[in-house]
Amino acid sequence: MKELSVNHLLGIKYINKNDIDLIFETADQFKEVINRPIKKVPSLQHITIANIFFEDSTRTKLSFELAQKRLSADVMSFSVAQSSVKKGETLIDTVNNILSMKVDMVVMRHKNPGAAHFLSQNVKASIVNAGDGAHEHPTQALLDSYSIREKLGEVGGKKVVIVGDVLHSRVALSNIFALQMQGAEVMVCGPKTLIPRYITELGVKYEPNLRKALEWCDVANMLRVQNERLDVNYFPSTREYSQQYGVDKALLDSLNKEIVIMHPGPINRGVEITSDVADSSQSVILNQVENGVAVRMAVIYLLAQKIK
Amino acid sequence: MSQKILLTSKEVNIILHRLACQLIEKHLDFSNTILIGIQPRGKYLAERIKQILEDEYNIKNIPLGFLDITFFRDDFRRNEKPMEANKTQIDFLVEDKKVVFIDDVLYTGRSIRAALTAIQSFGRPSGIELLTLIDRRFSRDLPIQPDYRGRQVDAINNEKVIVHWKENDGEDQVLLVAKEVKS
């Protein structure tokens, strides 16, 4: 009988390969469930989950909420814009107040790296990290790997290139950990200003030339240019970025093989990828969104199993 | 751990044929009937019954599905052991069909309760029946009884009835195993 080795999902670096396998096997079953005429199971009827988003999110928040509702959990969602955090309440106080309403699990996004880890050590609830600053975004990495596994059969032995703003990306870091854990080779590609200086010490390759990177890989994960985090100019102009690091159909067709295109969303169409690439048969972007619900159901279900 | 053989391979075979005949008596040509094996262990029994109906009674094309009830159980988090999900495979709607649930052992009835809820995701059947190889008497928590039963068994709570199938365990056999009581 299997269960997760952890009580919280704080980041990929805190879990192991067996956990990932278990999450994927469980997600397979949930994917079947969400394709039924009636897409709901009653497993988590007695569980209450709070979604606390200190940072904006559409996709992740909706995906988590839907996953929780499909499992029949009671859900409350709250964003900072309408909360007392603005009045100066501390993180622990905010969460403890919510927990005194008998909440079993907290899904949190926060702008500070390590916020989820900090919370897990200070409050009594199961914590799921839905993104902490530029640190980790574990469920995104899991659904990315799950989508690769679905499209190519397995993740082990595959070559994956992460293109774009690796410096500000929590998706990149979680993906690197998750892919390496499953035996994939990882490369990062992007303007040098957007690549962390010591990234190669994580055992990933760096390639400044997009064409060479694409020729090497089986899967390209295109990151979004995070305009809101770009406090200084990291590249001369958006136009120049898209000429150097944007993928269009002509570039894809000129490669001697068919690669899989992924994107964590939201897409800046015409910047990282053009519309004809985003909507092509090589793109699994919408599958990623569907798989996101199944993977998050699996994570929540498996963590809820460990609540004593 | 002591164990006793309740049914040998030959006896299992005779019972399977009887159960198949009882199904035919009620469902004739199975034109409006669906067999559903309850995962994980009811799968083997369901496949075997279908095989007998096809090979020996020439009833072809009986729809067979497998239903996993893990996410519908009422002992989530109450059970000491974590529960592992299995594959649900029902490639048809059960709307207005006669459904026969097939499981190896009927014990507390809670699995069947979960299955009754789970099947609703696939439509509203016109009726549901239950076929089990082993019916453990006097152990039910819920008012659920089989419509077709292979053998009734009286066993106390720390005994376990284990059904072996040749596809999976090498030989058809039903065992009564007494769990060791920790002192």
UniProtKB/TrEMBL annotation, chain A:
GO terms for biological process: 'de novo' pyrimidine nucleobase biosynthetic process; 'de novo' UMP biosynthetic process; amino acid metabolic process. Gene3D superfamilies: Aspartate/ornithine carbamoyltransferase (3.40.50.1370). PROSITE patterns: CARBAMOYLTRANSFERASE. It catalyses: carbamoyl phosphate + L-aspartate = N-carbamoyl-L-aspartate + phosphate + H(+). Pfam families: OTCace (PF00185), OTCace_N (PF02729). InterPro entries: Asp/Orn_carbamoyltranf_P-bd, Asp/Orn_carbamoylTrfase, Asp/Orn_carbamoylTrfase_sf, Asp_carbamoyltransf, Asp_carbamoyltransf_Asp/Orn-bd. It is an enzyme of class 2 (transferase). It comes from the Bacteria. Residues 157-302 form the Aspartate/ornithine carbamoyltransferase Asp/Orn-binding domain. The keyword Transferase applies. L-aspartate binds at residues 87, 170, 224. Carbamoyl phosphate binds at residues 59-60, 109, 137, 140, 265-266. Residues 8-150 form the Aspartate/ornithine carbamoyltransferase carbamoyl-P binding domain. Pathway: Pyrimidine metabolism; UMP biosynthesis via de novo pathway; (S)-dihydroorotate from bicarbonate: step 2/3. Its EC number is 2.1.3.2. Catalyzes the condensation of carbamoyl phosphate and aspartate to form carbamoyl aspartate and inorganic phosphate, the committed step in the de novo pyrimidine nucleotide biosynthesis pathway. Heterododecamer (2C3:3R2) of six catalytic PyrB chains organized as two trimers (C3), and six regulatory PyrI chains organized as three dimers (R2). Belongs to the aspartate/ornithine carbamoyltransferase superfamily. ATCase family. This is Aspartate carbamoyltransferase.
Automatic annotation (TrEMBL), chain B:
Residues 3-160 form the Phosphoribosyltransferase domain. It comes from the Bacteria. Keywords: Glycosyltransferase, Transferase. Gene3D superfamilies: 3.40.50.2020. Signal peptide: none annotated. One of its GO terms (molecular function) is glycosyltransferase activity. The keyword Oxidoreductase does not apply. NCBIfam families: PRK05205.1-5. This is Pyrimidine operon attenuation protein/uracil phosphoribosyltransferase. It comes from Flavobacterium cauense R2A-7.
